[in-house]
Amino acid sequence: MAMVDAPPPETETSGPQTQLSRRWLWPGGLSARLLVLTALFVAGAALFVLPATLAAYEEQWLLDRIRAAELASTIAEADPARRVTAPVRQQLLQQAGVVSVAIQTDGMRRLILAAPRDLRTPYMVDMRNQNPLAWMMAPFQTLFGGQGRMVRVIAEPRFRSGEFVEIVTPDQPLKDALLGYVGRLLLITLFVALLAGLAVYLALNAFLVQPMQRITLAMERFRADPADPAARVRPSGRRDEIGRAEGELERMQVDLVAALSSRARLAQLGEAVAKINHDLRNMLTSAQIASDRLAAIGDPKVAQAMPRLERALDRAITLATDVLAYGKSAEAAPEVRSIPLKAALEAAAEDAGLSESGVRLEAQVDDADTVTADPDQLHRILVNLLRNAREAIQDKGGDRPGRVQAVLTRGVGVSVIRLSDDGPGLPERALANLFQPFSGSARRGGTGLGLAISRELAQAHGGDLTLVKSTPQGSVFDLTLPGGATAPKPKRARKKKAEA
Predict the structure, then answer these.
(1) What 3 state SS string does 72-98 have?
(2) Under a CB-based contact definition with an 8 Å cutoff, are residues 150 and 169 in contact?
(3) Extents of the domains making up the chain
(4) What is the pTM of this model?
(5) CA atoms within 13 A on the CB side of 189
(6) What CATH number does the domain located at 336-438+448-489 have?
(7) Tens digits of per-residue pLDDT, 35-56?
(8) Rounded distance, CA 379 to CA 451, Å?
């Protein structure tokens, strides 16, 4: 048999501390992402204003050349004979950074200073009236327009009279100045972005990231060990969303611990039932044998009581078997069929201890009314509800006997059995956890399992058990079952056919 090397087992993290340290690794942590995003947003804002900044820088550079050329032209015209030697002209043009200067006055254009003729055709920039879009695009045309170009600039004069002053200058110095300015601007933008990102990072880390890390660490510890007191989150008392998250997490942890405790008690109950289930069934089987022997005596009174005893024993055996399933958080699937409701109510009332001389049942239900349910599970639900009502009325005391009223309401696809009693109502401490096992009991010594089991059985049918109201004048429960209540059709035609 060929040997196959097994893959190395996945190493689990050592705990919440290891997972927390992983979040600090760049750039997976929330803090690092905040820093990066803030720096990117600041850099993006700087890039957004870059065209206008470069356009303003280019405009100022050209204006400086125009003013320098304008001053050079005034020096050239200061000679009375207006004769400027070639070396002086070259020096004035070099100091101004241009190759020619012209002035237009009274419609006449005069060339004041000019270098030897250059055959390159310049492109023109008129600074007197510029389109905003063309103004912002001009620096990019300068940077990407090619090498060795000349630019002709026209602007209004400042130091002398005239209609406009015109210069011609190479654009390579302007391109070099723009590139240098872009480099300095990017360095400044990067510095400001990092500084702003760091400031925002520190602020958000103090007010948002650290509280979120504390909440996350509490959740991880709680998941690892719900019973650990250190895993409980401590609300900071903040009034913002972080404070609300801390409060909700604390309440959720408390509820979950209570649910886990209840589940543990149910597991213990299941284990205990499993231990006694075998012996209990043997006892009930012996009781069944004894009841069969009593039935053979032939006494009329014994024969009258035997059906009730047999039903009780059968249901006790079934319950002893099924209660183990509830301890495992699972009930047997209901086997539904049509059941006469009035007979089911009377049988449940008899087992729940209701009688004409004590707490009585008033079933305002027709003999033909039926519901769709599992007979045994419906009997358990009704017995639990009727027994609770009887015990509540008897605890209330008083001279007159109490009553429990049962009414059937037909709905669209559902049947609602409403049970109303004239007891004292449920106490406040029982209302909060009415359908919770071991928590919703209204009597001293009660387990609170009756209503919890009844609701689970009703929901297994696709219905529900709800408390409509509870006042000092009594309580009202609604048992909802799927399937509209229907009455069986009369069989008159079949009877007539049989008589014929």
Answers:
(1) HHHHHCCCCCCCCCHHHHHHHHHHHCC
(2) yes
(3) 17-46+183-224, 49-170, 237-330, 336-438+448-489
(4) 0.42
(5) 18
(6) 3.30.565.10
(7) 777 778 877 777 788 888 888 9
(8) 13
